[in-house]
Amino acid sequence: MGGHVEGSPFLVKAYSASRVSVTDISPGVVGRPVAFTINASHAGAGNLEIIVAVNGRNVPNYVQSEGNARFKVNFKPTEAAPHTLSVRFNGHAVPGSPFTCIVSAPAAAADARAAGPGLSSAPRGEPAEIHLTGFHTGEPTIFVTGPGGSSVRTRVTPTGDGRYTGSYTPEAVGRHSVQVQCAGRPVP
After folding, report:
1. Is 17 strand, coil or helix?
2. How far, in whole angstroms, is CA 31 from its chain's centroid?
């Protein structure tokens, strides 16, 4: 009795999940990265567990350390539905968890336009160019179908400030159908 206990004194690291804060949760848009911030700098030592889910399925997320136990979490939603953000510290839910991030479908850009020689005529075997402007709320998609109904590979390159350059190379002589879309809606 009263003797020394092997291994003592014991080093205990106290922590508090209630000192973890989750901030900067903004509504998201399908196909565009969403980020939020976790600050565990006053919570003590521990492990974070972050789960992003939609309709019962987990969504991949990526955690970037910003130093001093502060983290930026990114995910890219693929469907328009509320996403659940569950954050735990050493197995305990942090205050407010689970959080909800509202994700909506991208709106078609009202001022999106397509122009250029690739919409009227194009020499076989040479790139046909399309100038795309006004795509501030979503990225353009170009679909080209050749004379036999086959798909033609397209390329879209951002040039800044809602502008893009699109191109395709017709491999066959004949009528080609070119469709430009934003968020699944046709662009004039």
Report:
1. helix
2. 5
* Residue 165 falls inside a structural domain: yes
Distances (CA, A) of 43 to 47, 82, 88, 169: 10, 28, 12, 57
Tens of pLDDT, residues 23-82 = 988 888 888 899 999 999 999 999 999 999 999 999 999 999 999 999 999 999 988 899
Q: Which residues pair with 48 in a beta bridge?
A: 89
Number of structural domains in the chain: 2
> 156 has which bridge partners?
166
Which of 104, 133, 167 represents a domain boundary (last residue)? 104
